[in-house]
Amino acid sequence: MPPINMKKLYILRHGQTLFNQKEMVQGQCDSRLTDLGIRQSDAAGQYFKDQNIRFDSVYTSDLPRTEETLEQFYTGPHERRKGFRERSYGVYEGDSNLSLINIMANAKNAYGVLGIETDDSLVKRMKETLEEVMDQPGNDTVLVVSHGDIMRTFADWVDEKKMSEYGFMPNCAIFEYDYDEKTKTFDLIGVIDQHVADIKAETIWKNFKKNEE
To answer: To bridge 189 with a disulfide, which of 9, 174, 176, 203 should be the other Cys (CB 3.0-4.6 Å)?
Structure first.
């Protein structure tokens, strides 16, 4: 049996949105799910059902696309948390992804300029919000519906080596963690995406790597 202080956390990326489809920078603005995004959300729900995974508590960010994703497969109560919202991309929100890629490729420290939220800020609020919900009594298995960049950045912070082996993260990918309530540490078990293997959306982000300089 796992240690008594160990809890299970699943973080689900939202389904494809209109901005994702049009390859626009979304960040903290919002757009509705596409038909593909709805199918991806359904597939995520079916995965949890097939694996007999039941949640003690469910959370979303405060951006509507995460709630719309959740509503495709879950009818129980949930809570919205601002700490789970996507990175702010400042003046680039609503622009094309290519514009953001260009600034990230050419600026030595792209994050933190022109209103783009830094990795440190992203990890800090994600960690604090996750600890808050995971430390609640009875929250032994928790689902959070969040966003691609904050999920990937937090996972890099938890286990950069493991994440370096994982490529493009599709909509409705699931990150599985163990959480040790005693030490307040997260262990990245793996990234689950087989449920959307046949319904991934190719984008220009697939071969993009953030400038590490």
So the answer is: 176
Q: Residue 83, annotated ligand binder?
A: no
The residues facing 12 across adjacent strands are 145, 174
Q: Is 87 annotated as a binding residue?
A: yes
| Catalytic center residues | 14, 86
Taken in order of first residue, the domains within the chain and their CATH numbers are: 6-87+119-196 (3.40.50.1240)
* CB-count burial class (<10 Å; 0-12, 13-18, 19+) for 119: middle
Residue pLDDT tens, the chain, 213 long: 456 679 999 999 999 999 999 999 899 999 999 999 999 999 999 999 999 999 999 999 999 999 999 999 999 999 999 999 999 998 888 888 887 777 666 665 666 667 789 999 999 999 999 999 999 999 999 999 999 999 999 999 999 999 988 877 899 999 999 999 999 999 999 999 999 988 865 444 444 444 332
Q: Is 18 annotated as a binding residue?
A: yes
Is 19 annotated as a binding-site member?
Answer: yes
pTM: 0.89
Task: Give the separation between CA 207 and CA 61, rounded to whole angstroms.
Answer: 27
Q: What residue type is 37 in one-letter code?
A: G
